UniProtKB/TrEMBL annotation:
Domain of life: Eukaryota
Protein's UniProt name: Transposase MuDR plant domain-containing protein
Annotated segments matching region Disordered: 28-50
């Protein structure tokens, strides 16, 4: 048994400080010293933070990823659905949780919950596997959704021609232009 210069067993004094009676004959634990805090114990774990990706092909989720608001969670799910070419359904969507599953009965599942006393949301359950095929039509890829992603381009140049907007869409959303061609059919040129 280790004893310091004052003749006191430091692990026993730590237990007494926490109100634990220690009988040397009954047990001895090497972990009892861990009740005393150290600088290593005070380091907080950092969770991955969601930031809208610059390249839309890199949309992904991670377990324990944090979102600032529920709107960020919903936007990320819609981006993921459109750019991965999968159809998802909101199984639960209320003030405390969002649960999403793939429509095609593949194992993909995402569950986000609101953290207590905060507006921060965190991914609590994630199964990223998809065994379904890629879909070209997606209900989230609407003209409103596309407009949100192009609004800054149009604000910067209000007299921009439709052909230039279409070229920007092709460059920004590589691989998704067939879906957007259908959306652009009704727009005046």
């Amino acid at each position: 048994m280790a004893v310091d210069a004052s003749g006191v067993n430091p692990s026993a004094s730590a237990l007494v400080a926490f109100g634990v009676d220690r009988d040397e004959d009954k047990w001895e634990s090497e972990t009892s010293a861990s009740l005393v805090s150290s600088s290593d114990d005070e380091t907080k774990r950092r969770y991955p933070q969601y930031r809208p990706p610059e390249s839309f092909s890199k949309v992904h989720f991670e377990l324990e990823m944090q979102f600032a608001t529920k709107k960020d969670v919903m936007d990320a799910i819609k981006l993921y659905s459109v750019f991965k070419g999968v159809l998802v359904k909101f199984k639960k969507n209320d003030k405390a949780r969002v649960r999403v599953k793939c429509i095609d009965r593949c194992p993909f599942e995402l569950y986000c919950g609101r953290m207590k006393n905060e507006d921060t949301w965190i991914v609590k359950k994630l199964n990223p596997e998809h065994n379904c095929g890629r879909r070209l039509r997606n209900r989230f890829a609407s003209s409103n959704w596309l407009g949100k992603h192009l609004v800054d381009d149009v604000r910067n140049d209000p007299n921009v021609k439709m052909s230039i907007i279409k070229d920007r869409v092709v460059n920004k959303f590589k691989g998704l232009t067939q879906m957007f061609d259908e959306l652009m059919l009704g727009v005046d040129h």
